[in-house]
Amino acid sequence: MSNQERAAEIILGRTATDAAQALADAGLLMPDLPEPNEEVIWYEDSGVWRDSFEVWASEHHGTIEISGMGQPQIHIPVGRAEHLALCIIAAAKLAEEQE
Question: Is 9 helix (H, G, I), strand (E, B) or coil?
Answer without folding.
Answer: helix
